Amino acid sequence: MAATRPAAPDRPAPNHAMRELRGDLSPGEFATAVRRAAREIGEHVSCDARYVGRVEAGEIRCPNYAYERVFRHMWPGRSLQELGFAPREAVRRREALRRPAEAGGGRVVPAAVPWWPDDSHHPDEENDDVRRRTFLSGGPTALATVIGLDRPATAAPPASRLPRYAGSAPQPRKVGAAEVEGVEQAVRDIRLLDDVHGADTLFELAGQSLRTAYVLLNDGEYSSATERRLQAGAGELAISVGWLAHDSNRLAEARSFYSEALATARMADDSALEAHVFCNSAFLARDAGRPREALRAAQAGQSAARRLDSERLLSLLAMREAGGWALLRDRAACERALARAYTLFERGESEADPEWMSFYGEAEIAGLESQCWSALGDWDRASEQAGRAIALQEPHFVRNRALYTAELAHDRLGRGDLAGAGSHGHAAVDLLGEVRSARIRAMLADTATRLRSHRSVPEVGGFLSAYDLASVA
Fold first, then answer.
1. 265-275 CB burial, b ≥16 within 10 A, e <16
2. Beta bridge partners of 173
3. Measured between alpha carbons, how far is 329 from 293 in angstroms, rounded to an integer?
4. What is residue 434's three-state secondary structure?
5. CB 317 within 8 A of CB 302
């Protein structure tokens, strides 16, 4: 197969090689196949139909390292050039030559490209991968650089990222594809980093990105097509920040962010965004001890999701409903919702599944079922499903592994298995060295409090010592 021919610098050549490899699959189906291949090798990529379109249009001249590994897994033995991409070194040289030119007129171009690009700059895939891996090895300080949030939450964003003011009248800033892609990529980065590190180190920083997104939405100047994407992106970002607040035990703030996202969804008449808001709101209401509200939100989400043709989304919303019924101790209604959720789940993935649902696999549905049985006091079933969730969870979802392990400790204690509770509690504490989640810490704090009088059990004593040490660290 011939590689893509070189083109003029300002007009990328279409990537005919990747288009040929897609064959009869739709862009969405092809993106699903890429994500599935990534999971097979333990990678995490947020491939969707739009990314496939950018590849085939030649906008992505060279994929980042994560995508390169996935593509080599899918087509062993083929080089990047045989897949229609430019050599990585050539892309780097082009970037190095372009940046000084962009910096003309007194404008400084930072060495690390921020997540929020300016009007003329599209962040290349190489930089996306470098920023992601820098944070994964560098902790919360590196996060600030990764998604361009290395400013105090109270500080104003740089002038180049906000509308300019002349006297008292704001002058609208032109908002185009680059800004919208920046918002969308911020959502992906936050989700990925949360999966690995939890919410506590992300919440304040991500809130700044949300404020900037709404400045563009409220004060920018854009086309109707850009407005739709910007509304969806800002709404998804509000949901992401709301989730970070939830996982940090800032429940009132989470509810406020979800309300903002719901208002955005309603104004945009965006069913997908509305379903996502209700899905998260149901989970929040359950954790806040408001089961009736959880039920109403889950059912409203299902109503919105029926227009979207995604069985997996309906399955997750049915699980949210089951959680509400479980808190109400209505076992029969909970079991009906669980059965419906599994029936929908087993119909498989589709290209209509939202990108944000990448976490919803066999491990997650088992974990959510475990929570239902725990709320109903069926500790044997709760323990069984929590153990299954741990066994099925992919290693890079560190926060979820810690969550399921903390839940299993709680369930073992419910069964009266003190040694098991101590052992799994200790394992969860070990994982907290890698993840920051106030919600998980609160679960472990409750288990530790209930186990204090049983310190003589060796496993319990080991857990309490590790927990107390971690609490003061």
1. beebebebbbb
2. 220
3. 15
4. coil
5. yes
